[in-house]
Amino acid sequence: MDSTRVTEHPTSYERPQPGVDPADPRGALLRTSTPAHTPGTTALPAQARGGDTPPGAAAPCAQGRKPDTPQGRAPDAPQSTGPDTGTGTGTDAGPEHAQPAAEDTGTHRPRPAPDAIPVQPDGSAQPAEGASGADPAAATDPNTPATPDRRTGQGPSPGQPTPMRRDGDRLRFVGAATRRIARGLDLDEIVMGLCRATVPTFSDAILVYLRDPLPVGDERPTGPLVLRLRRTDRIPVERDSEAGFAPLPQPAAQQPEPWELAELSTVAAELCEVRTGGALAEVLRGVRPVFADAPAARAALPELLGAGGDLVIPSGQRAILAPLRGRRRVIGAAVFLRRPERIPFETDDLLVAAQLATHSALGIDKAVLYDREAYIADELQRTMLPETLPRPTGVRLASRYLPAAETARVGGDWYDAIPLPGSRVALVVGDVMGHSMTSAAIMGQLRTTAQTLAGLDLPPQEVLHHLDEQAQRLGTDRMATCLYAVYDPVSHRITIANAGHPPPVLLHLGGRAEVLRVPPGAPIGVGGVDFEAVELDAPAGATLLLYTDGLVESRLRDVWTGIEQLREKLAATAQLTGPDHPPPLEALCDEVLDMLGPGDRDDDIALLAARFDGIAPSDVAYWFLEPEDAAPGKARKLARRALARWGLEDLSDSVELLVSEVVTNAVRYASRPVTLRLLRTDVLRCEVGDDVPQLPRLRQARATDEGGRGLYLVNRLARRWGATRLSTGKVVWFELNRT
């Protein structure tokens, strides 16, 4: 079956239609008149078929060829040679669209003119290019009767749009404007969408006032109602026909209106406090838009715009004040303005302004709620991750975190660095499945559990075992991957246990990058599996990179391809600084993230880089002391010798006093040898270990007490001090500045 040909005429609300006079004060609104008609029309016009003769072409019979006779058509039925214009002889009919001809009563059903026939300034209509069947003389004949308004029964004035046509334009404009407003996601985009949609199609200028501060959701605002000028937009004075409004010619002696010279943002008041019971409060409470010359608006607009409002508001019905009401309360107001030379607003334009205000207010409500949710997500994710990384002895740290997208700012990826006794540090990175608030909450619980287990100085495999049990207690479907490593700067060794996480990459000082071979393990939450730990060398100057799978896996590449690309990226970055100088940690993290392409951000990314500086053996002194009464004196003597060897004799008095007090407390309760270790780094650190798990507490000794003053002295003289419980006892440590 032949398909019916349909000719579409696009309509733009930001550019004038072809054939419209640029000086037309209605801008993008088309002005059309009712097409002329002749008696004898059929009840329904015939449809042009794809196989029919195109307009302006001769019929096949006229060219000496016999016309085709489709099935169901009478051979002697006349062919339709004109377009679908609603005029004919009453015998045009197709096989599928044939209708019985109505009696000629002299009347017909009016049809709006096609979009391709704009009305000229003199009220005449020009036929569309290539159209046939429309009599130009009939279109321009002033004696041709126009279709009366079906509501009033009166015909339109020459050159004016028909009510039906103007209503259709308003509906199309409102549809396009609301779609543009709805595209905005944040507050500024929605307000800008309102301004761009209305200027210059509906108004020449607009002022948007919003409540300051904007209430969120069901919050009940406190304090007075204050409106702040959020945005203004207007047609520039130097306009061209592309904007849809060309300036009218004016005499040279005539000066522009004051509001044309003034910038709206400088003339209108920036802040307005709405007085309770005032004129502006009444208009806002009424919700409906009003004209500026209405009694209620005459007093409300000066209160809103301030002293410069007279320069902004033109005379007549050329300004509309529209309250912006959200779901529960008024959140602002919009003022639509037209230039004095343009025709004023009409009553139906109040309905347009009401639609624009309603959609904008609801969009602003959604934007405010979205901003609040994004803020909560950001705060939740920020508090779940370390605010700052520690500065443990012998290792430097750097980290990065990237959410999966702007609309999914929370996720289950986390990283952590936990100082451990003996100047060691635990490096943790993990990934909980999902990108929801639930994933972030589970991640926070697992991170807290890992910190608690690390404080007990458990081996890495034991930490993962307890994390697996905790994940099962949280739920049967709580799955996560985790990698837990402990670095010892004294022995230059690192112990790693893995639970289904991508393996770390070690960048050596010479520029060689290698993927460490660690047991893969099962993810946390599976249950019933063992985790293995492996101990590897951690040479000084090397960099260990821990990451989540979002860095190396995406829809465009598998995880092992991404790991190999990461290894190559690290090696290439190290070559830039030479074999003897490792790349800076912060710059290295940025370079690693630069390997991500446009389609590689399917998951959030956590990145933790550790540069191993280590502690040289010459900066470490270590002794075992038997738990006897002579142990404190021996400890003082050993400490004095070590300080003399390091050139720190100035610290001898303080160190001997504090070592004596701590060793005395350890010997009093210990049953096994006590350990004493001195570390020389940027500070002097002293560590005393015993086999008693009870931690000492600082207390204020009474005047009659014989003991209880040792920790008081440590607290007063040491830079820092602390006590950490171990699986075999505890360690009490303190630090002193070297200078």
Structure overview:
By secondary structure, the protein is α+β, with helices and mostly antiparallel strands. The protein has three domains: 167-234 and 263-375, 2-Layer Sandwich (Beta-Lactamase); 385-612, Phosphatase 2c, domain 1 (4-Layer Sandwich); 620-737, Heat Shock Protein 90 (2-Layer Sandwich). The chain is built from 16 helices and 21 strands. It has helices at 136-140, 163-182, 187-198, 258-261, 264-267, 279-286, 295-305, 309-312, 347-384, 437-455, 460-474, 559-577, 585-593, 631-646, 652-669, 710-717; strands spanning 205-211, 226-234, 271-273, 290-291, 319-325, 330-337, 395-402, 413-419, 425-432, 480-488, 493-499, 505-507, 513-515, 533-537, 543-547, 605-612, 620-625, 674-680, 683-690, 720-726, 729-737. The protein has a six-stranded antiparallel β-sheet with strand order 3-2-1-6-5-4, with helices on both faces. Strands 7-16-15-12-13 form a five-stranded antiparallel β-sheet, covered by helices on one side. β12 and β13 form a beta hairpin. α2 (163-182) runs parallel beside α9 (347-384) and α15 packs antiparallel against α16 (710-717). The chain is elongated, with a radius of gyration of 42 Å. Residues 1-147, 149-153, 156-164, 239-256 and 258-262 have low confidence and may be disordered. Residues 1-171 are annotated as: Disordered. InterPro entries: Bact_Sigma-Reg, GAF-like_dom_sf, HATPase_C_sf, HATPase_dom, PPM-type-like_dom_sf, PPM-type_phosphatase-like_dom. It holds the Pfam family SpoIIE.
